[in-house]
Automatic annotation (TrEMBL), chain A:
This is Ribosome biogenesis protein NSA2 homolog. Component of the pre-66S ribosomal particle. Belongs to the eukaryotic ribosomal protein eS8 family. Ribosome biogenesis protein NSA2 subfamily. The lineage of its organism: Eukaryota, Viridiplantae, Streptophyta, Embryophyta, Tracheophyta. The keyword rRNA processing applies. Its main location: nucleus.
Automatic annotation (TrEMBL), chain B:
It comes from Brachypodium distachyon. Pfam families: NOG1, NOG1_N, NOGCT. Gene3D superfamilies: 1.20.120.1190, P-loop containing nucleotide triphosphate hydrolases (3.40.50.300). This is Nucleolar GTP-binding protein 1. GO terms for cellular component: nucleolus. The lineage of its organism: Eukaryota, Viridiplantae, Streptophyta, Embryophyta, Tracheophyta. Residues 169-353 form the OBG-type G domain.
Amino acid sequence: MPQGDYIELHQKRHGRRMDFEERKRKKEARSVKKNSKDARKLLGAKGKRFAKKRYAEKAQMKKTLKMHDESTSRQKVDDDVEEGALPPYLLDRDQTQRAKVLSNTIKQKRKEKAGKWDVPLPKVRGVAEDEMFKVLRTGKRKTKQWKRMVTKATFVGPGFTRKPPKYERFIRPTGLRFTKAHVTHPELKCTFNLDIISVKKNPNGQMYTSLGVMTRGTIIEVNVSELGLVTPAGKVVWGKYAQVTNNPENDGCINAVLLV
Amino acid sequence: MVQYNFKKITVVPPGKDFIDIILSRTQRQTPTVVHKGYAINRIRQFYMRKVRYTQQNFYEKLSTIIDEFPRLDDIHPFYGDLLHVLYNKDHYKLALGQINTARNIVAKISKDYLRLLKYGDTLYRCKCLKVAALGRMCTVIKRISPSLAYLEQIRQHMARLPSIDPNTRTILICGYPNVGKSSFMNKVTRADVDVQPYAFTTKSLFVGHADYKYLRYQVIDTPGILDRPFEDRNIIEMCSITALAHLRAAVLFFLDISGSCGYTIAQQAALFHSIKSLFMNKPLVIVCNKTDLQPLDGLSEEDMKLVMEMKSEAMKTIPQGGDPSEEGVLLTMSALTDEGVMAVKNAACERLLEQRVEIKMKSKKINDCLNRFHVAMPKPRDNRERPTCIPEAVLEAQAVAAAKEKKKLERDLENENGGAGVYSVSLKKHYILANDEWKEDILPEILDGHNVADFLDPDILERCEELEREEGLRLEEAAAQDAFMIDGHDELTKEQREILGQIRKKKAMLIQEHRMKKRTAESRPIVPRKFDKDRKFTTKRMGRQLSSMGVDPSAAVSRVRSQSRGRKRERSLSRAEGDDMEIDGQHSNKKLRTRSRSKSRPIEEVAPGEGFKDSAQKKKAIKKSRDSVKNRNKEARRGEADRVIPTLKPKHLFSGKRGNGKTSRR
């Protein structure tokens, strides 16, 4: 026992008070009442925190109880349908096999040409122009209104040089420029912070694509060289597409899902 | 001088509480109300403030943790090593490093989001950004919560470390387990260390304090050390090794010569030789303990040889310059019988003190102090005797004082005449009487049925004389005054009479002036009925008041009555009788038609002056001024002559923000 542990020392020398055990037991027994009183009385942020904690505890308790029940009771198991299982009416059909296996890249190219993508977010809310742009008034008397400022997150390539400000129609503020995205690999269930290479397509229009605006549902190209993906031919893949899944201007970051 | 107080480190809250503390603080200390309709700038400011405030709080809290935990490289090597032994330096540094990184990350997050908030164009967007910012900060903290928990544990442990000052006079007790180190400690200090008959009772360093030569010594009890390679030693042993290695102290190596600790002398000697290097440059004392079981002389020859070997080693620790006496190197004691305990302590303290003084003498700084010290020891010049010189007068005075007889006190008398209880004090002997013989006479209390005291008046004769003298004086005075009165009347000369005339004139003037003032006073408010709602000013009331003051009110009442207007008929009758009350010298005028008209007054002389051309102008001015206040006075309104307390702090000058206008007046 170190020198500073005076409480323990005292207990060792003189023992605890006579009713220690009883008091402890009573206090413990009473703690339920105290908790319920707190649940009724607490207000504001404290009450919120308390409720959340209590809810978590209760949910946990229910789960454990259920787990214990499961070990004793039996229940019916319905087996999952396997991936790629055929319905009975198709069982007698012959499976046609493509003679030549198309490489992944060719598939991708075809899809690209068709402009159709099987993407995680197939539909997005349209963004109106006045939401996308803010009108800037210019001129000595501030009467001219041809200038626009993009109010969403944008990607601006590293080699970009501004036009002379006087003639610049669209301004992409530096504060809203992003160069990195958090990309989730759906199969690996991992998220990586990857560099953005370009904006492939903005669902709201070609103009936004060319401006590099990133809204929800935008397809971006990210640098996946870190992931070490390899093509069937054995080359290292470095650019891959991903779809933005959040509203970057509201969250302050870009979350995306890799398209594989 | 660095004080090593680890008790003052503030509590490190666990990760979850940390977040709660900061977030609730933000909620409490920043504004909470914002509306969509506010100017966008205001909304942005509102949310930016929240983000910035949260970041500042995180920064402050994390900074206090980083600052308050000691940096192992900066503190005394003893503490550095001790903390390393107890908590593992790498782990400790890693934890603090993580805190530091978290602090930087939080700062960066806040910077990023503040920048984004500047572009927020709606309340919703600003709010989203704020939520994201706070959430990310909290995530960072959540990730370092294991480090926080670790630091909190360390903090609690550090607070309980004994407060050892590494630079002061220290005595270190070391040796095998169970050789009686703690028993000695308990004898010498008040540390109250636990003593048990098994090995490793003491598991950490203990500190106590002892006095020697009015100086305080810090005594450190260490856990026992086993003789084994350095790498195999456990944490408990490492504590003592750390203390031995880093503290410049007198070392007491305890030796159990009876062997009741479970280790032979040979084993103990082996330990001594293996840790010999730690004793370098330290005064070392070998203490043979438990002599009550086994005296030193009774040892076998081999053991004795081992002990002597150790002694010769210990002798090497005495510096070359020091005296090579053998005492204070090998000592025997018994903690059980208290034999030699003090000798051991004194020897250790003495040798430590010697060594410290020597080191100080060798240091460079000593020259700065030494040249200021000088103890003068003058040598006798010749053989002449030089006694102290006492002046003649003083000697004489002393002799006189000695020769003077003491006044005989009542106390001395008492002692002479049989002491207290026997001797009774004579209260009469200091009486002051005309004749000394009367002193002892007895005065009767009652004589011829009268109380003597009633008739006693010692100075009646003197008083009588005094009275007669006074009477004579008064008579003389009266006679002198009579004489003056008789012939004083004619003695007024012409000049004096003139002066008297002037005085009288002046008096008359004064009276006139006073009257004029009084008359002016008549224009005092006569309160009209409409302002006398409570009916205070009634004749009845006046009569009552006057009679209560003891004045006959009838005259006053009748006068007032006559002034108030009655019915016309009656008045004409009463008027005919003549109203004597109003007669006022020659000005009384029977022609007065009504009481509605005020009495005429004489046209007075008004001395011109005060900026007026002549008396007529002045009169006009006086009249005008009177007229102007008449109505006001009648209605008992406030006038300019009334006492006024101006508003000391006019509200309009002391409240409100500065808007348009000047600094002095808004």
